[in-house]
Amino acid sequence: MDLPWHLYLMAFLYIIAGINHFRVPEVYLKIIPSYFPNPKLLNILSGAAEVILGFLLTFPFSKHFAAWGIIAVLIAVFPANIYMYQNRKASFGLPKWILLLRMPLQLLLVLWAYQYTL
Fold it and tell me: Which residue from 66, 73, 77, 54 is spatially nearest to 115, judged by alpha carbons?
């Protein structure tokens, strides 16, 4: 497999983040907006998607599909960033400027994944 190191880094980060959904679900449940139904299921699905897509990034035949999947996941979980910014309980006591900075960071993650869709 002749894939760039930064693709493996991305894969590793998503696999670890996905596993974290199962290790410490309360962290993720806290940031799921209250208007979404069944937060436990959403946490499980997003964690599983991150693990599976991260793993699929490591194979040349599936990296394009996985990168598009990661972009979809990043877009799907974006409301959690807004919810964290708006809801004091979901913010983990972080300063507003850090929570605001997370939003463009999400765009950078989308751009990082996008380069592997080509």
Answer: 66
Residue with tokens 């199962």: 22
Tokens standing for residue 19: 């596993």
CA nearest neighbour of 83 among 19, 30, 31: 31
Record the tokens describing residue 74, joined without a space.
């990043």
The rounded distance, in Å, linking the Cα atoms of 101 and 109 is: 13
Spatial distance between the Cα atoms of 112 and 118, rounded to a whole number of angstroms = 12
pLDDT tens string, the chain, 118 residues long: the values are 567 999 999 999 999 999 999 999 999 999 999 999 999 999 999 999 999 999 999 999 999 999 999 999 999 999 999 999 999 999 999 999 999 999 999 999 999 999 999 8
